[in-house]
Amino acid sequence: MSLHLICNAHVDPVWLWEEAEGLAETLTTFRAAVAFCREYDEFVFCHNEALLYEYVLAHDETLFDDIKNLIAQGKWKIIGGWYLQPDCNMPHVEAMIRQISRGRKFFKDHFGVEPETAVNFDSFGHASALIQLLVKCGYSSYLFCRPDHRFLDIKSPSFIWQDANAYELLAHRADEHYNSIRGKAGEKVLDGIARSEGNRPEMVLWGIGDHGGGPSHIDLAAMRKIITEHPDIQITHSWPEAYFNSLDQTNIPLLKKSLNPFSTGCYTSQIRLKKKYRQLENDLFLTEKILSSGWCQMLISYPEKELRKATDCMLFCQFHDALPGTSIERVEKKLIQRIDQSLVNLENLRNKILFKKSALGEAAEAEEFPVFLLNPHPWPVTRYFELEFQPPEPNFDPSVYKIPELRTLQGQKIPLQSLKADSNLDQDFRKRMLFKQHLEAGELRQLSASLINGEKPHPAGSIDNTYRVPGSQPPIDGRDTSSFEIYNNVSMPCCEGI
Description:
It is a single chain. By secondary structure, the protein is α/β, with parallel strands linked by helices. It folds into 3 domains: 2-262, Glycoside hydrolase 38, N terminal domain (7-stranded beta/alpha barrel); 267-358, Up-down Bundle (Substrate Binding Domain Of Dnak, Chain:A, Domain 2), CATH 1.20.1270; 369-496, Golgi alpha-mannosidase II (Immunoglobulin-like, Sandwich). The protein has 11 helices and 18 strands. It has helices at residues 19-39, 50-59, 61-73, 93-111, 130-136, 185-194, 217-229, 240-245, 271-296, 304-317, 329-358; strands spanning 2-7, 45-47, 76-78, 117-120, 141-144, 158-162, 168-173, 202-206, 234-237, 254-255, 369-374, 381-389, 401-408, 416-419, 431-439, 444-454, 485-487, 494-496. The chain has a 5-stranded mixed beta sheet with strand order 4-5-7-6-10. It has a 3-stranded parallel beta sheet with strand order 8-1-9. A hairpin with a 5-residue loop joins strand 6 and strand 7 (168-173). Helix 1 (19-39) crosses helix 3 (61-73), helix 2 (50-59) packs across helix 3 (61-73) and helix 6 (185-194) packs parallel to helix 7. The chain is elongated and about 100 Å long.
């Protein structure tokens, strides 16, 4: 039999601590790992997460070069290859692709490596939709720890994981988990020898702590002793790909389900962060579509750096001890602050291109308010839109009440439902409406809003100034208008829809 000893150091950038502490622990752990790689000829250190290597590159270039040299020598193995270890249940499919591609690009650009085994030791379950993503991103195997045997009964720690579309990966669950107590790694190795069956290869993950650490002198000395005492077993310091390549797949069982559940209660906590994260996903992907359209029209230079910052914020907030809701309150607040800043930046980018696009429209007549609808999708949509706009002056004439009217540029009247404006001023001033339109793929449509005189529908002093234009349709119950954003100013209101 063969036994693969895979040393790693689990470093959470945030969890029960904030990012500065995670960064400091990364530098300390990696410096120690470099020293162990140089001291022990047989030792191989394994680590993933591009974010942590970015920490090193930004704060200790000498250490980064040392790691690069050890990778070239085969003494340091990049495993997993993602940006970090994210939650694998909640992020959107596109967001997961970014998580994978962002990490793989970093490791290929800086170290020339592309891992074939995806690694998520500590994530709280894994959706089966992940299989197809991994296969199409170049992975052939998957290494994880959760859910363990208490939550998911499987016939063998190594199995073929298959989804509903028949995509499949070799997978291994490390029931003994990814870390070890200082001085106890030798016992973990002996347990691995004891549970071995026939010629089936075994894997032992080891490394101190859940806050950095990794190898230690006492543990490496114990392993040298075990290797000497068991000459009949091929015990080597190894990495995940070497383990999976040694497997005989002829008798490996098949598993056709998601690797869930685990720690389901955490998915009900820290809802503010979860909602903010989802908003960031939607805003980022929407903004990219709008900016791509503007770039194709040669209206702007594509703001790659600004979008990358927002993307990195999204990827960081996917972290498995952040998005599910298991970090301390200070971490939650800091991540919400990050997201809010990214949301502001994305809104500014959208405004920039939307106003450039609207400047290409037809000039407005007196008392006319141009309205622009944009469908950034490559498919047609039929949706309800909400628009609130600003007349030049409040209406102080008590005998009339201003009612909004909406028309196409060809003069065709569009049915609308008037709604209460956000403002609670007791004046006939701000106007808000709901209307339905069909937009072709990528279409930018200009409409014309105006005000006509009508009768005030409510007694003076009524708080609810919602009214309906005669002959218009009432709002549809249960309609979803949350995906539409309104862009307006005094002279050029714009309504943009998804």
